[in-house]
Design goal:
This protein is an alpha+beta fold and 492 residues long. It has helices at residues 45-55, 151-158, 169-176, 183-189, 237-246, 250-260, 315-320, 339-355, 429-436, 440-454, 461-474, 476-486; strands spanning 68-77, 96-105, 120-128, 131-138, 204-205, 210-213, 219-228, 266-274, 301-311, 333-334. The structure holds protoporphyrin IX containing FE. It catalyses: 2 H2O2 = O2 + 2 H2O.
Length: 492
Protein backbone atom coordinates (compact mmCIF):
# COMPACT_ATOMS: atom_id res chain seq x y z
CA UNK A 1 0.00 0.00 0.00
CA UNK A 2 1.22 3.53 -0.82
CA UNK A 3 0.63 5.17 2.58
CA UNK A 4 0.23 8.59 1.01
CA UNK A 5 -2.63 7.47 -1.30
CA UNK A 6 -4.74 6.45 1.70
CA UNK A 7 -8.22 8.03 1.82
CA UNK A 8 -10.61 7.59 4.75
CA UNK A 9 -13.03 4.88 3.65
CA UNK A 10 -14.63 1.84 5.18
CA UNK A 11 -12.85 -0.11 2.40
CA UNK A 12 -9.68 0.38 4.47
CA UNK A 13 -11.21 -0.89 7.71
CA UNK A 14 -8.83 -2.57 10.07
CA UNK A 15 -9.83 -5.95 11.48
CA UNK A 16 -9.36 -4.62 15.00
CA UNK A 17 -10.54 -1.50 16.83
CA UNK A 18 -8.36 1.65 16.52
CA UNK A 19 -8.38 5.34 17.39
CA UNK A 20 -9.05 7.84 14.58
CA UNK A 21 -5.30 8.10 14.15
CA UNK A 22 -5.01 4.34 13.74
CA UNK A 23 -3.54 3.29 17.08
CA UNK A 24 -4.83 -0.10 18.33
CA UNK A 25 -7.56 0.06 20.99
CA UNK A 26 -7.47 -2.95 23.27
CA UNK A 27 -10.52 -2.08 25.36
CA UNK A 28 -13.58 -0.26 23.95
CA UNK A 29 -15.76 -1.20 26.94
CA UNK A 30 -14.32 0.45 30.03
CA UNK A 31 -12.85 3.90 30.69
CA UNK A 32 -9.36 4.17 32.17
CA UNK A 33 -9.86 4.71 35.91
CA UNK A 34 -7.90 4.92 39.11
CA UNK A 35 -8.81 1.63 40.68
CA UNK A 36 -11.99 -0.22 39.70
CA UNK A 37 -14.50 2.51 40.66
CA UNK A 38 -12.91 5.70 39.26
CA UNK A 39 -12.28 8.60 38.88
CA UNK A 40 -11.61 8.52 35.12
CA UNK A 41 -8.23 9.68 33.85
CA UNK A 42 -8.15 12.45 31.26
CA UNK A 43 -5.28 10.60 29.63
CA UNK A 44 -7.78 8.02 28.31
CA UNK A 45 -7.34 9.50 24.83
CA UNK A 46 -9.60 6.95 23.12
CA UNK A 47 -12.49 7.68 25.50
CA UNK A 48 -12.06 11.47 25.10
CA UNK A 49 -11.88 11.15 21.29
CA UNK A 50 -14.95 8.89 21.21
CA UNK A 51 -17.08 11.24 23.33
CA UNK A 52 -15.82 14.36 21.54
CA UNK A 53 -16.69 12.84 18.17
CA UNK A 54 -20.14 11.91 19.44
CA UNK A 55 -20.66 15.41 20.85
CA UNK A 56 -20.18 16.82 17.33
CA UNK A 57 -22.21 14.29 15.31
CA UNK A 58 -24.97 16.70 14.28
CA UNK A 59 -24.56 19.50 11.79
CA UNK A 60 -27.09 22.32 11.39
CA UNK A 61 -30.17 21.12 9.57
CA UNK A 62 -31.16 22.89 6.34
CA UNK A 63 -32.95 26.15 7.12
CA UNK A 64 -35.79 24.83 4.91
CA UNK A 65 -36.27 21.34 3.41
CA UNK A 66 -34.60 19.78 6.46
CA UNK A 67 -36.57 16.54 6.19
CA UNK A 68 -35.64 14.50 3.12
CA UNK A 69 -34.68 11.25 1.47
CA UNK A 70 -32.30 10.64 -1.41
CA UNK A 71 -31.59 8.00 -4.01
CA UNK A 72 -29.30 7.51 -7.00
CA UNK A 73 -29.84 6.52 -10.59
CA UNK A 74 -29.53 7.88 -14.10
CA UNK A 75 -31.12 10.28 -16.53
CA UNK A 76 -31.47 9.15 -20.14
CA UNK A 77 -32.25 11.37 -23.11
CA UNK A 78 -35.13 9.93 -25.14
CA UNK A 79 -35.81 12.83 -27.53
CA UNK A 80 -33.43 15.07 -29.41
CA UNK A 81 -33.52 18.69 -28.22
CA UNK A 82 -30.05 19.62 -29.48
CA UNK A 83 -31.72 22.30 -31.65
CA UNK A 84 -32.57 24.08 -28.36
CA UNK A 85 -29.45 23.51 -26.27
CA UNK A 86 -25.78 22.70 -26.59
CA UNK A 87 -25.81 21.01 -23.14
CA UNK A 88 -23.51 18.01 -23.54
CA UNK A 89 -25.65 15.68 -21.42
CA UNK A 90 -28.66 16.42 -23.68
CA UNK A 91 -26.66 15.92 -26.89
CA UNK A 92 -28.55 12.90 -28.29
CA UNK A 93 -31.12 10.24 -27.46
CA UNK A 94 -29.60 7.34 -25.53
CA UNK A 95 -27.07 9.47 -23.59
CA UNK A 96 -27.16 8.57 -19.89
CA UNK A 97 -25.97 10.73 -16.97
CA UNK A 98 -25.63 9.60 -13.35
CA UNK A 99 -27.84 11.50 -10.89
CA UNK A 100 -28.63 11.80 -7.22
CA UNK A 101 -32.09 13.02 -6.24
CA UNK A 102 -33.29 14.40 -2.92
CA UNK A 103 -36.98 14.64 -2.07
CA UNK A 104 -38.01 16.66 0.94
CA UNK A 105 -40.72 18.42 2.86
CA UNK A 106 -40.17 22.14 3.34
CA UNK A 107 -41.14 23.62 6.64
CA UNK A 108 -40.67 21.18 9.47
CA UNK A 109 -37.63 19.75 11.19
CA UNK A 110 -35.28 16.97 10.16
CA UNK A 111 -37.30 14.31 12.01
CA UNK A 112 -40.80 15.61 11.30
CA UNK A 113 -43.63 13.45 9.86
CA UNK A 114 -43.74 13.05 6.10
CA UNK A 115 -47.54 13.28 6.03
CA UNK A 116 -47.89 17.00 6.71
CA UNK A 117 -49.50 19.44 4.28
CA UNK A 118 -46.46 21.11 2.78
CA UNK A 119 -44.84 21.44 -0.64
CA UNK A 120 -42.28 18.74 -1.43
CA UNK A 121 -38.78 19.38 -2.76
CA UNK A 122 -37.67 17.52 -5.89
CA UNK A 123 -33.96 18.24 -6.41
CA UNK A 124 -31.89 16.47 -9.05
CA UNK A 125 -28.10 16.64 -9.35
CA UNK A 126 -26.88 15.56 -12.80
CA UNK A 127 -23.18 14.59 -12.75
CA UNK A 128 -22.46 15.58 -16.37
CA UNK A 129 -19.17 15.53 -18.31
CA UNK A 130 -19.24 19.35 -18.24
CA UNK A 131 -19.82 19.69 -14.51
CA UNK A 132 -22.83 19.26 -12.27
CA UNK A 133 -26.28 20.58 -13.16
CA UNK A 134 -28.67 21.00 -10.22
CA UNK A 135 -32.37 21.20 -11.09
CA UNK A 136 -33.72 22.21 -7.68
CA UNK A 137 -37.48 22.06 -7.93
CA UNK A 138 -40.69 21.33 -6.07
CA UNK A 139 -43.78 19.17 -6.60
CA UNK A 140 -45.91 22.23 -7.48
CA UNK A 141 -45.32 24.26 -10.66
CA UNK A 142 -45.62 27.68 -9.00
CA UNK A 143 -44.39 29.42 -5.85
CA UNK A 144 -45.87 31.57 -3.05
CA UNK A 145 -44.06 34.86 -3.76
CA UNK A 146 -42.28 36.29 -6.76
CA UNK A 147 -39.54 38.34 -5.14
CA UNK A 148 -36.78 36.70 -3.06
CA UNK A 149 -36.84 39.71 -0.72
CA UNK A 150 -39.99 38.14 0.75
CA UNK A 151 -38.63 34.63 1.18
CA UNK A 152 -37.26 34.91 4.75
CA UNK A 153 -40.50 36.48 6.03
CA UNK A 154 -42.55 33.89 4.19
CA UNK A 155 -40.58 31.06 5.77
CA UNK A 156 -40.82 32.67 9.21
CA UNK A 157 -44.62 32.86 8.87
CA UNK A 158 -44.88 29.22 7.80
CA UNK A 159 -42.43 27.91 10.43
CA UNK A 160 -43.53 27.52 14.06
CA UNK A 161 -44.38 30.56 16.14
CA UNK A 162 -41.04 31.68 17.70
CA UNK A 163 -42.71 31.88 21.11
CA UNK A 164 -44.69 28.63 21.23
CA UNK A 165 -42.79 26.65 18.56
CA UNK A 166 -46.15 25.64 17.07
CA UNK A 167 -47.11 26.20 13.42
CA UNK A 168 -50.15 28.46 13.55
CA UNK A 169 -52.65 29.28 10.81
CA UNK A 170 -53.27 32.85 11.97
CA UNK A 171 -49.61 33.70 11.28
CA UNK A 172 -49.79 32.11 7.83
CA UNK A 173 -53.02 33.75 6.69
CA UNK A 174 -51.84 37.06 8.16
CA UNK A 175 -48.58 37.10 6.18
CA UNK A 176 -50.11 35.90 2.94
CA UNK A 177 -53.04 38.33 3.22
CA UNK A 178 -50.47 40.87 2.02
CA UNK A 179 -49.57 38.66 -0.94
CA UNK A 180 -52.44 37.80 -3.29
CA UNK A 181 -49.82 36.41 -5.70
CA UNK A 182 -49.73 33.40 -3.33
CA UNK A 183 -53.29 32.30 -4.27
CA UNK A 184 -52.11 30.11 -7.10
CA UNK A 185 -49.65 28.25 -4.85
CA UNK A 186 -52.41 27.82 -2.25
CA UNK A 187 -54.60 26.30 -4.95
CA UNK A 188 -52.04 23.48 -4.91
CA UNK A 189 -51.17 23.39 -1.21
CA UNK A 190 -54.80 23.25 0.00
CA UNK A 191 -55.78 20.89 -2.82
CA UNK A 192 -55.55 17.10 -2.42
CA UNK A 193 -52.00 17.20 -3.87
CA UNK A 194 -50.96 19.12 -0.72
CA UNK A 195 -50.18 15.75 0.91
CA UNK A 196 -48.56 13.41 -1.65
CA UNK A 197 -48.93 9.69 -0.96
CA UNK A 198 -45.13 9.37 -0.96
CA UNK A 199 -42.18 10.65 -3.00
CA UNK A 200 -42.68 8.21 -5.89
CA UNK A 201 -46.23 9.32 -6.66
CA UNK A 202 -45.65 13.02 -7.16
CA UNK A 203 -44.75 15.31 -10.01
CA UNK A 204 -41.73 17.57 -10.04
CA UNK A 205 -41.21 20.99 -11.58
CA UNK A 206 -38.20 23.23 -12.10
CA UNK A 207 -40.73 25.97 -11.13
CA UNK A 208 -38.52 28.91 -12.13
CA UNK A 209 -37.95 29.77 -15.78
CA UNK A 210 -34.52 28.81 -17.10
CA UNK A 211 -32.94 29.46 -20.50
CA UNK A 212 -31.77 26.92 -23.04
CA UNK A 213 -29.15 28.11 -25.53
CA UNK A 214 -28.06 26.30 -28.64
CA UNK A 215 -24.66 26.24 -30.37
CA UNK A 216 -25.43 29.29 -32.47
CA UNK A 217 -26.45 31.29 -29.40
CA UNK A 218 -30.25 31.24 -29.88
CA UNK A 219 -31.96 31.33 -26.47
CA UNK A 220 -35.36 29.95 -25.42
CA UNK A 221 -37.09 30.22 -22.07
CA UNK A 222 -37.84 26.80 -20.63
CA UNK A 223 -39.84 25.21 -17.82
CA UNK A 224 -39.03 21.67 -16.66
CA UNK A 225 -41.66 19.06 -15.66
CA UNK A 226 -41.15 15.60 -14.14
CA UNK A 227 -44.10 13.15 -14.52
CA UNK A 228 -44.04 9.94 -12.46
CA UNK A 229 -44.72 6.81 -14.51
CA UNK A 230 -46.64 5.29 -11.58
CA UNK A 231 -49.06 8.24 -11.52
CA UNK A 232 -49.84 10.95 -8.95
CA UNK A 233 -51.40 9.80 -5.68
CA UNK A 234 -52.26 11.74 -2.55
CA UNK A 235 -53.31 11.10 1.03
CA UNK A 236 -56.61 12.56 2.14
CA UNK A 237 -56.89 13.78 5.75
CA UNK A 238 -57.99 10.54 7.43
CA UNK A 239 -55.44 8.49 5.54
CA UNK A 240 -52.63 10.93 6.29
CA UNK A 241 -53.41 10.71 9.99
CA UNK A 242 -53.42 6.90 9.84
CA UNK A 243 -50.18 6.64 7.82
CA UNK A 244 -48.37 9.35 9.81
CA UNK A 245 -49.58 7.91 13.09
CA UNK A 246 -47.96 4.56 12.44
CA UNK A 247 -44.76 5.70 10.70
CA UNK A 248 -43.48 9.25 10.57
CA UNK A 249 -40.92 8.22 7.87
CA UNK A 250 -43.31 6.41 5.55
CA UNK A 251 -42.16 8.21 2.37
CA UNK A 252 -38.46 7.60 3.05
CA UNK A 253 -39.24 3.95 3.71
CA UNK A 254 -41.37 3.65 0.58
CA UNK A 255 -38.55 5.04 -1.58
CA UNK A 256 -35.91 2.84 0.02
CA UNK A 257 -38.02 -0.34 -0.07
CA UNK A 258 -39.14 0.18 -3.69
CA UNK A 259 -35.57 0.51 -4.90
CA UNK A 260 -34.37 -2.41 -2.77
CA UNK A 261 -37.18 -4.56 -4.27
CA UNK A 262 -36.15 -3.61 -7.84
CA UNK A 263 -39.33 -1.57 -8.34
CA UNK A 264 -37.40 1.44 -9.60
CA UNK A 265 -39.19 4.80 -9.47
CA UNK A 266 -39.22 6.56 -12.82
CA UNK A 267 -40.20 10.00 -14.08
CA UNK A 268 -40.41 11.35 -17.63
CA UNK A 269 -38.91 14.78 -18.21
CA UNK A 270 -40.85 17.25 -20.36
CA UNK A 271 -40.15 20.87 -21.25
CA UNK A 272 -42.24 23.85 -22.26
CA UNK A 273 -40.51 26.42 -24.40
CA UNK A 274 -41.10 30.11 -25.15
CA UNK A 275 -39.11 32.16 -27.63
CA UNK A 276 -38.07 35.29 -25.68
CA UNK A 277 -39.10 37.35 -28.72
CA UNK A 278 -42.69 36.32 -27.92
CA UNK A 279 -42.67 36.87 -24.16
CA UNK A 280 -45.07 39.84 -24.34
CA UNK A 281 -47.81 37.82 -26.05
CA UNK A 282 -49.37 36.56 -22.81
CA UNK A 283 -51.68 38.13 -20.23
CA UNK A 284 -49.11 37.09 -17.60
CA UNK A 285 -45.37 37.58 -17.33
CA UNK A 286 -43.68 34.27 -18.31
CA UNK A 287 -40.89 34.97 -15.80
CA UNK A 288 -43.39 35.33 -12.95
CA UNK A 289 -42.94 32.25 -10.76
CA UNK A 290 -46.55 32.46 -9.55
CA UNK A 291 -47.78 31.50 -13.04
CA UNK A 292 -47.96 28.29 -15.02
CA UNK A 293 -47.52 28.32 -18.77
CA UNK A 294 -50.85 26.96 -20.12
CA UNK A 295 -50.19 23.58 -21.73
CA UNK A 296 -52.83 24.05 -24.43
CA UNK A 297 -50.81 26.89 -25.97
CA UNK A 298 -47.34 25.78 -24.82
CA UNK A 299 -47.41 21.98 -25.06
CA UNK A 300 -45.17 19.66 -23.09
CA UNK A 301 -42.31 18.26 -25.17
CA UNK A 302 -40.72 14.97 -24.06
CA UNK A 303 -36.98 14.99 -23.33
CA UNK A 304 -35.93 12.00 -21.26
CA UNK A 305 -36.45 9.74 -18.29
CA UNK A 306 -35.12 9.61 -14.76
CA UNK A 307 -34.70 6.20 -13.12
CA UNK A 308 -33.76 5.73 -9.46
CA UNK A 309 -32.17 2.30 -9.20
CA UNK A 310 -29.71 2.58 -6.31
CA UNK A 311 -30.22 3.38 -2.68
CA UNK A 312 -27.72 5.58 -0.91
CA UNK A 313 -25.03 3.84 1.15
CA UNK A 314 -25.04 6.34 3.98
CA UNK A 315 -27.71 8.84 4.98
CA UNK A 316 -25.33 11.40 6.47
CA UNK A 317 -22.85 11.40 3.56
CA UNK A 318 -25.45 11.34 0.79
CA UNK A 319 -28.39 13.20 2.29
CA UNK A 320 -27.27 15.52 5.07
CA UNK A 321 -24.08 16.52 3.23
CA UNK A 322 -25.77 16.69 -0.15
CA UNK A 323 -25.93 20.30 -1.33
CA UNK A 324 -27.99 21.58 -4.26
CA UNK A 325 -27.81 25.01 -5.80
CA UNK A 326 -29.86 26.48 -8.69
CA UNK A 327 -26.76 28.48 -9.68
CA UNK A 328 -25.03 25.25 -10.69
CA UNK A 329 -25.76 24.97 -14.40
CA UNK A 330 -23.82 23.70 -17.40
CA UNK A 331 -23.09 25.27 -20.81
CA UNK A 332 -26.35 25.28 -22.80
CA UNK A 333 -28.52 25.98 -19.72
CA UNK A 334 -28.73 29.41 -18.12
CA UNK A 335 -30.86 31.35 -15.67
CA UNK A 336 -33.62 33.76 -16.58
CA UNK A 337 -34.34 37.18 -15.09
CA UNK A 338 -37.06 35.65 -12.87
CA UNK A 339 -36.44 37.65 -9.67
CA UNK A 340 -37.00 34.70 -7.38
CA UNK A 341 -34.48 32.58 -9.28
CA UNK A 342 -31.97 35.41 -9.15
CA UNK A 343 -32.14 35.41 -5.33
CA UNK A 344 -31.84 31.63 -5.25
CA UNK A 345 -28.63 31.89 -7.29
CA UNK A 346 -27.08 33.60 -4.26
CA UNK A 347 -28.78 31.86 -1.36
CA UNK A 348 -27.94 28.16 -1.70
CA UNK A 349 -24.14 28.25 -1.90
CA UNK A 350 -24.19 30.85 0.87
CA UNK A 351 -26.21 28.65 3.25
CA UNK A 352 -24.10 25.60 2.37
CA UNK A 353 -20.87 27.40 3.20
CA UNK A 354 -22.45 27.95 6.60
CA UNK A 355 -24.11 24.52 6.96
CA UNK A 356 -21.30 22.36 5.58
CA UNK A 357 -18.26 24.65 5.42
CA UNK A 358 -16.41 26.50 2.68
CA UNK A 359 -15.14 23.33 1.00
CA UNK A 360 -18.56 21.63 0.79
CA UNK A 361 -18.11 21.07 -2.94
CA UNK A 362 -15.20 18.74 -2.18
CA UNK A 363 -17.50 16.37 -0.32
CA UNK A 364 -17.76 13.26 -2.52
CA UNK A 365 -21.52 13.59 -3.09
CA UNK A 366 -21.18 17.20 -4.22
CA UNK A 367 -17.92 17.05 -6.17
CA UNK A 368 -18.13 16.87 -9.96
CA UNK A 369 -17.34 13.50 -11.48
CA UNK A 370 -15.44 15.16 -14.35
CA UNK A 371 -11.92 16.61 -14.17
CA UNK A 372 -11.92 20.08 -12.66
CA UNK A 373 -9.29 22.68 -11.87
CA UNK A 374 -8.96 26.19 -10.48
CA UNK A 375 -7.01 28.07 -7.86
CA UNK A 376 -9.72 28.35 -5.20
CA UNK A 377 -7.86 26.53 -2.46
CA UNK A 378 -7.22 26.01 1.24
CA UNK A 379 -9.85 26.95 3.85
CA UNK A 380 -11.35 24.77 6.58
CA UNK A 381 -11.40 21.02 6.00
CA UNK A 382 -9.74 21.13 2.62
CA UNK A 383 -8.77 17.59 1.70
CA UNK A 384 -7.96 18.15 -1.98
CA UNK A 385 -4.53 16.74 -2.78
CA UNK A 386 -2.49 19.39 -4.62
CA UNK A 387 1.19 19.43 -5.45
CA UNK A 388 1.51 22.18 -8.06
CA UNK A 389 3.82 25.16 -7.53
CA UNK A 390 1.77 27.66 -9.51
CA UNK A 391 -1.47 28.67 -7.77
CA UNK A 392 -2.12 31.88 -9.67
CA UNK A 393 -3.48 32.71 -13.10
CA UNK A 394 -2.28 33.46 -15.69
CA UNK A 395 1.11 31.82 -15.69
CA UNK A 396 3.55 30.70 -18.37
CA UNK A 397 4.34 27.69 -16.18
CA UNK A 398 0.78 26.40 -15.88
CA UNK A 399 -0.53 24.70 -19.03
CA UNK A 400 -4.21 24.93 -17.93
CA UNK A 401 -6.06 27.50 -20.02
CA UNK A 402 -9.58 28.93 -20.26
CA UNK A 403 -12.23 26.49 -21.43
CA UNK A 404 -13.69 27.01 -24.88
CA UNK A 405 -16.20 29.85 -24.89
CA UNK A 406 -19.84 28.76 -24.69
CA UNK A 407 -22.94 30.82 -25.55
CA UNK A 408 -24.83 32.85 -22.94
CA UNK A 409 -28.14 34.70 -23.48
CA UNK A 410 -27.63 37.39 -26.10
CA UNK A 411 -30.39 39.77 -24.91
CA UNK A 412 -29.33 43.37 -24.39
CA UNK A 413 -30.37 44.60 -20.92
CA UNK A 414 -31.20 48.17 -20.01
CA UNK A 415 -33.35 50.01 -17.50
CA UNK A 416 -33.08 52.31 -14.54
CA UNK A 417 -32.51 51.06 -10.99
CA UNK A 418 -35.89 50.27 -9.42
CA UNK A 419 -37.47 48.54 -6.44
CA UNK A 420 -40.94 47.62 -7.63
CA UNK A 421 -43.41 44.89 -8.42
CA UNK A 422 -43.89 43.49 -11.92
CA UNK A 423 -46.45 45.04 -14.26
CA UNK A 424 -48.64 42.05 -15.19
CA UNK A 425 -49.54 40.73 -11.74
CA UNK A 426 -52.72 38.91 -12.84
CA UNK A 427 -53.00 37.16 -9.45
CA UNK A 428 -56.50 35.69 -9.68
CA UNK A 429 -57.09 34.21 -13.13
CA UNK A 430 -55.01 31.03 -12.96
CA UNK A 431 -56.05 30.00 -9.41
CA UNK A 432 -59.70 30.51 -10.41
CA UNK A 433 -59.27 28.39 -13.54
CA UNK A 434 -57.62 25.68 -11.49
CA UNK A 435 -60.46 25.63 -8.94
CA UNK A 436 -63.08 25.42 -11.71
CA UNK A 437 -61.27 22.46 -13.33
CA UNK A 438 -61.95 20.25 -10.29
CA UNK A 439 -64.84 17.87 -9.64
CA UNK A 440 -67.33 19.10 -6.97
CA UNK A 441 -65.99 16.78 -4.22
CA UNK A 442 -62.45 18.07 -4.76
CA UNK A 443 -63.70 21.67 -4.64
CA UNK A 444 -65.53 20.85 -1.42
CA UNK A 445 -62.37 19.47 0.24
CA UNK A 446 -60.48 22.61 -0.80
CA UNK A 447 -63.18 24.84 0.70
CA UNK A 448 -63.18 22.75 3.90
CA UNK A 449 -59.44 23.27 4.35
CA UNK A 450 -59.79 27.02 3.92
CA UNK A 451 -62.71 27.16 6.32
CA UNK A 452 -60.57 25.35 8.86
CA UNK A 453 -57.57 27.66 8.36
CA UNK A 454 -59.70 30.80 8.59
CA UNK A 455 -61.54 29.48 11.65
CA UNK A 456 -58.42 29.75 13.80
CA UNK A 457 -59.63 31.87 16.74
CA UNK A 458 -56.79 34.35 16.20
CA UNK A 459 -57.81 35.02 12.59
CA UNK A 460 -59.60 38.38 12.74
CA UNK A 461 -62.74 39.38 10.89
CA UNK A 462 -60.59 41.67 8.72
CA UNK A 463 -58.35 38.77 7.69
CA UNK A 464 -61.33 36.56 6.85
CA UNK A 465 -62.84 39.35 4.75
CA UNK A 466 -59.56 39.85 2.84
CA UNK A 467 -59.26 36.16 2.03
CA UNK A 468 -62.87 35.91 0.97
CA UNK A 469 -62.38 38.92 -1.29
CA UNK A 470 -59.27 37.31 -2.82
CA UNK A 471 -60.97 33.99 -3.49
CA UNK A 472 -64.04 35.80 -4.84
CA UNK A 473 -61.80 37.53 -7.37
CA UNK A 474 -60.46 34.09 -8.38
CA UNK A 475 -63.90 32.45 -8.48
CA UNK A 476 -67.16 34.07 -7.41
CA UNK A 477 -68.84 30.87 -6.23
CA UNK A 478 -65.78 29.90 -4.19
CA UNK A 479 -65.83 33.27 -2.44
CA UNK A 480 -69.57 32.99 -1.77
CA UNK A 481 -69.25 29.50 -0.29
CA UNK A 482 -66.40 30.59 1.98
CA UNK A 483 -68.36 33.65 3.09
CA UNK A 484 -71.44 31.66 3.96
CA UNK A 485 -69.50 28.91 5.75
CA UNK A 486 -67.53 31.49 7.74
CA UNK A 487 -70.54 33.69 8.31
CA UNK A 488 -68.91 36.73 6.72
CA UNK A 489 -70.73 39.17 4.42
CA UNK A 490 -68.71 39.36 1.16
CA UNK A 491 -67.50 42.91 0.50
CA UNK A 492 -67.45 42.44 -3.28
C1 LIG B 1 -35.82 33.26 -3.17
C2 LIG B 1 -36.44 32.14 -2.92
C3 LIG B 1 -35.76 30.98 -2.26
C4 LIG B 1 -34.72 30.97 -1.38
C5 LIG B 1 -33.96 32.16 -0.83
C6 LIG B 1 -34.46 29.59 -1.04
C7 LIG B 1 -33.51 29.18 -0.14
C8 LIG B 1 -33.26 27.88 0.20
C9 LIG B 1 -32.30 27.44 1.18
C10 LIG B 1 -31.44 28.38 2.00
C11 LIG B 1 -32.32 26.10 1.20
C12 LIG B 1 -31.48 25.18 2.08
C13 LIG B 1 -30.34 24.64 1.25
C14 LIG B 1 -29.35 23.83 2.05
O1 LIG B 1 -29.16 24.05 3.25
O2 LIG B 1 -28.70 22.95 1.43
C15 LIG B 1 -33.28 25.67 0.24
C16 LIG B 1 -33.55 24.36 -0.04
C17 LIG B 1 -34.37 23.99 -1.07
N1 LIG B 1 -35.13 24.81 -1.87
FE1 LIG B 1 -35.23 26.79 -1.81
N2 LIG B 1 -35.32 28.79 -1.71
C18 LIG B 1 -36.13 29.60 -2.47
C19 LIG B 1 -37.14 29.21 -3.30
C20 LIG B 1 -37.30 27.93 -3.72
C21 LIG B 1 -38.14 27.53 -4.81
C22 LIG B 1 -38.96 28.44 -5.72
C23 LIG B 1 -38.01 26.18 -4.91
C24 LIG B 1 -38.63 25.28 -5.92
C25 LIG B 1 -38.38 25.47 -7.18
C26 LIG B 1 -37.09 25.73 -3.89
C27 LIG B 1 -36.70 24.43 -3.72
C28 LIG B 1 -35.80 24.02 -2.77
C29 LIG B 1 -35.45 22.65 -2.54
C30 LIG B 1 -35.95 21.43 -3.31
C31 LIG B 1 -34.55 22.62 -1.48
C32 LIG B 1 -33.92 21.40 -0.84
C33 LIG B 1 -32.68 20.98 -1.57
C34 LIG B 1 -32.15 19.70 -0.94
O3 LIG B 1 -32.83 18.67 -1.07
O4 LIG B 1 -31.09 19.75 -0.30
N3 LIG B 1 -36.68 26.81 -3.18
N4 LIG B 1 -33.87 26.77 -0.35
Amino acid sequence: MDPYKYRPSSAHDSSFWTTNSGAPVWNNNSSLTVGTRGPILLEDYHMVEKIANFDRERIPERVVHARGASAKGFFEVTHDISQLTCADFLRAPGVQTPVIVRFSTVIHERGSPETLRDPRGFAVKFYTREGNFDLVGNNFPVFFVRDGMKFPDMVHALKPNPKSHIQENWRIVDFFSHHPESLHMFSFLFDDVGVPQDYRHMEGFGVNTYTLINKSGKAHYVKFHWKPTCGVKCLLEEEAIRVGGSNHSHATKDLYDSIAAGNYPEWKLYIQVIDPDHEDRFDFDPLDVTKIWPEDILPLQPVGRLVLNKNIDNFFAENEQLAFCPAIVVPGIYYSDDKLLQTRIFSYADTQRHRLGPNYLQLPVNAPKCAHHNNHHEGFMNFMHRDEEVNYFPSRFDPVRHAERFPIPPAVLNGKREKCIIEKENNFKQPGERFRSWAPDRQERFIGRWVEALSDPRVTHELRAIWISYWTQADKSLGQKLASRLNVRPSM
